[in-house]
Structure formats: C-alpha cells, structure tokens
Model the fold of this input.
Amino acid sequence: EFEKAIKIVPDDFRVNFFLGVAYSRVGRNEEAVRVLEKARQINPKDINAISQLALVYDGLKKYEESDRLYEEGLKIDPTNALILNNYGYSLADRDIQIERALEMAKKAVAAQPDNTSYLDTIGWVYFRLGDYKQAEMYIKKAIEKGEVSAVVHEHLGDVYYKMKDLERALEQWKIALKMDENNVALRDKIARGSL
Done:
C-alpha cells in the first residue's frame, strides 16, 4: 500500500514522511533515508522530518550526517525535547561531548519528566560520567514508569556492574536478554559476567 501511495503522490511531504517513519520502524533504514530525504526536499525546515532522518542516520552509524541534522534541528527549535534527547543519547553512547549531552538530557527530562526514554538517556549520560548513583536513580525511574526496551534493563545491569553488584547486574542483563533473545553481545556479557 505504502509503495503504491509513494508512486501516486511522489511529491507529497506527508506521504514521504510517514513512509520514512514506517520504514525505520521495521528496520529498513536505507529506504527510510531515501523517502525522508525526499520529504526534506519538499519541506526542508520540518522539525519532525529532520528529527526522524537524524535518528535513522544515527542508527546507520552515519554520525556526520546525523550530527549535522541534529544541529540543524536545534537551530530551528533549541527546546525540541525529542532532538535534545536523541542527540544527547547519541553523544553519550559514543562517549563524546558528555557535558553537552548532560545539558541536553536535563532539558529533555525537564520538558517531559515521565518520558521513559528521556529518563534512560539522562541515566546513561550519568553512567558515562561515572556517576553511578544518579545513573541508577534515573534508569530505575524509567523502569518503574512502565514499558521500556531491553536496552534500559541492560543499562541498569551495566550500572550495577560498575557499582560492583554482579548479582543485580546479571539479573538485569537476563531480563534484557529475555526481551531481546538475539542480542549476541548481551549473551556474551552474561557468559563473561562482566562488561
């Protein structure tokens, strides 16, 4: 259906944008890039298209492109919580510009204090900073709020490991593995009993 729609209305911003979102949700990132770039050609200043495309490039590990888009998005809307969160997480995950990542994460959490993704991000930034108490507090809060991905449990396990609590680390890693059974790196981490 989507493919048909794209052929019928090739220059429609919304069709391209929603098709891009759909592609990225099912992990077809190359196709997502193609249609999201088209959406941006039609409407270059649309913050949602910029944000989504940055996220897809980030997932493809094309960090030069994703960082450029995140920066562009922040110029348009410096308070956009989603961009602040996603960019902050990306920086923390790559272990670069951690102080800046913390500023971004704080703003995102201030805007949406109950958002589990944002709570995990700020926790992960504190982890990178070596502040394991703060990391534990925020990541646990994310888990207490409800539906979280396997990554959040893995993050909490990493925090416990750094706090020298291997029992609780393994417990969280095993929860994460149940949720994401194909995660080989996580399986290895459990087998080793270390990061």
User: Anything to note?
Assistant: The first helix runs from residue 2 to 8. The chain has a mean pLDDT of 94. Residues 54 and 70 are 6 Å apart (CA to CA).
